[in-house]
Amino acid sequence: MSENVAPQPGSFQELAQLLMSLDNLLVSCMRCGLCQAVCPVYGSTFREADVTRGKIALLENLAHETIKDPKSVNDRLNRCLLCGSCEVNCPSGVNILEIFIKARSFVAGYLGLGLVKRLIFRHLLPHPRLFNLATRISGFFQKPFLKVANPLVGTHRAPILKMFLGDRHIPSLPKASFSSKRGALNIPAGSSGIKVALFPGCVPDKLFANLSEATLKILRYHGVGIFMPENLVCCGIPSLASGDSQGFLGLTSQNLKALSKQPFDYLVTPCATCAANIKDNWPRFLDKYGEEEKKAVAALVSKTMDITQFLVSALKVEFKPAEPKNDAKKVTFHDSCHLKKSLGVAAQPRAIIQSLPDYRLVEMPEADRCCGNGGSFTLFHYDISKDIGQRKRNNIVSVKPDLVVTGCPACLMQLMDLLSQNNDQIAVKHVVEIYADTLPDQAA
Amino acid sequence: MSINQTLINEYINITSPSQVLTEEADRLSYSYDAAVLTPRIPALVVAPATEEQLGQVVKLTYENSLPLTVRGSGSNLSGAVIPEPGDSVVILTNRLNKILEINEEDLYAVVEPGVITSQFAEAVTARGLFYPPDPGSQTVSTLGGNVALNAGGLRGLKYGVTKDYLMGLEFFDYNGNLVKTGSRTVKCVTGYNIGAMMISSEGTLGVFSKIIFKLVPPPKASQAMMAVYDDINKASETVAAIIANHILPCTLEFLDQKCLIHVEAHTKAGLPTEAQAILLIEVDGGHQAGVDEDAQKVKDICVKVGAKDIRVAKDAAEKFKIWEARRNALPALARAKATTVLEDATVPRSKVPAMVSEVNRIADKYKLDIGTFGHAGDGNLHPTILCDRRDKEEFRRVEEAVDEIFDVALRLQGTLSGEHGIGQAKAKWMVKETNQATVDFSKRLRQALDPKYLFNASKKII
Question: Which residue of A265, A377, A423, B420 is most buried, as measured by CB atoms within 10 A?
């Protein structure tokens, strides 16, 4: 097809043309292959198509129509955690996540989304009431299905649900989600004079409600005002990772609308993935937003923070290093990819841990190596996810800690599953949980 | 012979279904390496996981007269693992990745070919010993690939290159029979020194299965410094004077002004961009006092020859900072434009200034952006051409410039490649550096060891 004739909508030529819009990014990969050193998926499978260099080569060939099999390319493109390890390590500074996220959306647009994903991304995630109801019903009926797997880690097996969950060891759902229990929040700024929008994120809201409660407790303790509108929805990362840019943009618009109701100084979340997604991915589709939305997204890029980053770097809470008590628990910290590689947050959670005399921080080897969860990656590639995770588990166990702490709810789920499967007696906590435990209880 | 399902099943019988890749998308991802050359898609990719599987795969492939290319991590810069044309097979070594032995008493290690260089070096360091070769791709390159291309690195001047650490080798010949050469001893004169022939053989003579490397005790002290020059000849005189004073720095690196400008733009590290060249010098040794003495001598030489500024690292943080310019040389150049053509022409040490000025002349002549950095201590320079491979007219000028760089290197009594290899990129130049008799001799040797001409046929000698 000659270049100046517009290709048929939905045709392979249209897909190739869309991918050609990434050509300037793709061409900057010099094929050095240094991504092999850090890619968790490649480290498990040793397949070139699983590493960034291979995926970029496939996309280039698809764009230039020298391979005409979008399905195969898509299968390989999806064997990626979007952890960003390669981008951080890339000598030519290739904008890898931009390439992968856009390419996933182009290819999914061509291949279609599939019924289950469509139902979840377009019908469940945009409706917070329905999503809360679904989790509440699941929470109510879960008991007969769950068998305790590892009480210290806090996991269960669900043999009857094997066809959906595999052999995963999972935490149980709380009776009610954080947002349905608390409703909308509007607490004026206290001593700090700062007001934040609290973005709990789906996993802390619906699965780890304790984590959201801990976040709330910390913010209130430090006199931070809190604004949490009731119709916040998913940040959109699952939709985006599956290439559903339409669903993603719908969710973003809903969130922007909800957040526009009140002024706030920072947007704070205990979910590293939500924070990274808001800062890095919301602006990726700037041309698809209206003028007001564009401004709001641009403002959020500088305002959005992980909770530990907010406490240490914005609120300037002084976390003085404390001498660990004699009976202090040995804790090791896992750097979540979205926290360290996307947000550059690694010192802050450690500063918090080291200020607590009840804990002694010991670093594990490869603390910033991906745990293998990758959000929806683990749903579709559980075998690889588990294999990547086993390396993380071995690194954790090697320093013989009492507990492992992280700053990302998805990593929490993965670490719980890994340690529980290995029958390790090591607790798993989010850093805000151990900090909140040291603060005095306040009236809710 | 073409590849049909029966043959694929034979490969699967030797290995397992997941070790044999036949789908187009998988094969396509083995069509290139780190050289900027035209890719070629192999017909089949197989990843043996044991020595036994490796031998059987080689035998089966040869029996079926299929061209074969052995691939580690595909990080070489000479097209040495771009597959052969036609129904060709790629044999991956990355599952043969076990360190079999590190012997602290007898100072050697035995490894499989797919072990990653830096992982090996770290394992050796953890046992209190030292494996010096450190090619730029060491975090991904395999030791098998390092032997096949005689990989070098920053420590060549004092510590040598991969060949200086090869004690023994086991490899499969074309029949799939295991051949053994060398030993675990310092001295060994048993049979021909086949290992020396296999070094930098680029996959044309046999398929490695096991490598024995020499290890050395690590240096206990080191000192790093940066010397800044407004005249490139003075930098070169410094190098010559250091060596004439019988000091062998462990690293003696060079960056020209174009490089410095790119690195400074990328890092904002406060580099002297007005300088014509800088030298980064590190001396090491067994005793701090001896190292300090050498460092002082080097500093005096730099001053005497005419360095306009010298920065000596006072601690580990400053040492890290001094090396920042070198660490960022390639990243900075690579970011400047879409395509980075990294060359490897090497000249006798004293010819470095002549070579750099010739490279700059060539850059002007072909209107190209070329930054040069490299290993001044061993005359191994990396003129790096920044371009965009999509611009056909420009890329033609790049190719002409590369040809002329080789011409100049040979005229200065240098060599086509110090460490990147001949591969398919430079095979056509072999006659020019040597002569027809050398090429003919090499071909006869090759024919004896690979009668069907199937081992990486388009590489090295054509």
Answer: B420
Residues of B in contact with A23 (CB under 8 A): 390
- Return the pLDDT at A2: 47
Pair of tokens at residue A153:
């880690």
> Which pLDDT value is given to residue A1?
43
Q: Is the pLDDT of residue A291 over 90?
A: yes
- CA–CA distance, B354 with B339 (Å, rounded to integer): 26
**Kindly report the CA angle at B381 between B380 and B383, in degrees rounded to 5?**
155
Q: Is A222 on the interface with B (CB under 8 A)?
A: no
Q: What is the CATH number of the domain that holds B28?
A: 3.30.43.10
pLDDT band at A443 (very low <50, low <70, confident <90, very high): low
Q: Do B137 and A32 touch (CB under 8 A)?
A: yes
Q: Burial letters for A18-45: b for 16+ Cβ neighbours within 10 Å, e otherwise?
A: bbbebeebbbbbbbbbbbbbbbbbbbbb
Distance of residue B325 Cα from the nearest chain A Cα, in angstroms: 14
Same domain, B316 and B254: yes
Secondary structure of residue B92 in the 3-state scheme = strand
Q: How many separate domains does chain B show? A: 4
pLDDT one-digit tens code per residue, A74-93: 999 999 999 999 999 999 99
pTM of the model: 0.94
Q: Which residues of A touch B36 (CB under 8 A)?
A: 30-31
CB pairs under 8 A between A and B: 89
Nearest CA in chain A to B77: A32
B73 vs A28, A33, A61: nearest CB: A33
What's the pLDDT band for A160 if we cut at 50, 70, 90? confident
**B193 and B147 housed in the same domain:** yes
Cβ-based contacts of A46 with chain B (< 8 Å): 47, 92, 94-95
Domain residues for the domain of B371 are 337-431
The single residue listed with the structure tokens 């720095």 is: B249
Domains and their CATH numbers in chain A: 12-111 (1.10.1060), 329-437 (3.40.50)
Indicate whether A350 pLDDT > 60. Answer: yes
